[in-house]
Amino acid sequence: MGAPTESYVKLSKEESMILSNEQVYVPEYVCVLDDTLLRDVCVTSGTGPGAWVLINSNKSFEELNDLLGPNELNLAKIDATSLAMDILGRPITNTAIVGALAKISGLYTLDQLAAALKLQFKGAIADKNIELINQTFQEVEIQEPVRDYDREKAEKLVWGHLEPQYIGAEDVPIGAPWYTPGGSEKVNTGGWGIYRIEFYPEHCSQCQNCYFACPDMCIVREKREDGLWYVTGTDDFHCKGCRLCVEVCPGKKGVIARKAILKE
Ligand code: SF4
Ligand code: SF4
Predict the structure, then answer these.
(1) Regarding predicted confidence, which is higher, 228 or 177?
(2) Is there a contact between 259 and 198 (Cβ–Cβ < 8 Å)?
(3) Cα(205) to centroid of ligand 1, in Å?
(4) Contact residues for 114 (Cβ-Cβ < 8 A; gap 6+)
(5) pLDDT tens per residue, range 176-213
(6) One domain, residues 35 and 93
(7) Could you say which of 2, 51, 191, 228 would form a disulfide bridge with 36 (CB–CB 3.0 to 4.6 Å)?
(8) Is there an atom of ligand 2 within 6 Å of 258 CB?
(9) Is residue 243 lining ligand 1, measured as CB closer than 6 Å?
(10) Does the beta carbon of 219 lie inside 6 Å of ligand 1?
(11) Backbone angles phi, psi at 123, to 5 degrees
(12) Which residues have a Cβ under 8 Å from the Cβ of 249 and sit 6 or more positions away?
């Protein structure tokens, strides 16, 4: 099963300002690449009044505030998934988000970002990513009024809130973050996938390719009276829609038994 992932970066216009590389406990900017995380993870941990939360979402600010709860944050949103699909042809949203972040933070310019992208990518891929950051820079929406940031009032993010009674907690190293009682089993990690996988049992040859290919253990099987395991479906709650199971499916008589359907 996939799990919510956090990463950190420290940015400063003055090189000498960055003196350490440990986790960020008091973030001034939080980028949320998947708005379904708002249901399961407190993305605003450690933020103070006026900190920015930039969310990849096509929801309204009202809906996002309902999910976040009462807050004194600055909110910004961009439909990065749709733009990435339009421009890159794939739902890769990290480049899109950093284009929007350039606008709301002013920490770096689009030219600096484009130069960095050219170091990473070449040719048409670089051009498309640069087009994407330009688009998200223009289209990012900012909730009014914008508040001043007050770092002094930020509550330091507490790590290691491990609750020993939770399932699987004994397997987690002391100090690891453990957000949800029951662990990822109870987290809807499939919520952010853009594809839903349809299974057609009449075309399934029970080759088990999908079972071994799925990186998230989302192929549902049952053991029948003959003692063998049979593929019976997909765990939609955790399936991330990577489509690997579709790629490896030979089906039966030339008709595959799995199809990826774009979610509404
Ligand atoms: S798309 Fe298929 S392989 Fe990918 S997570 Fe879902 S069930 Fe697993
Ligand atoms: S890969 Fe396709 S044919 Fe093979 S078990 Fe999975 S669904 Fe059935």
Answers:
(1) 228
(2) yes
(3) 18
(4) 130, 133
(5) 444 555 556 666 777 777 889 999 999 999 999 999 99
(6) yes
(7) 191
(8) yes
(9) yes
(10) yes
(11) 55, -135
(12) 209, 210, 256, 257, 258
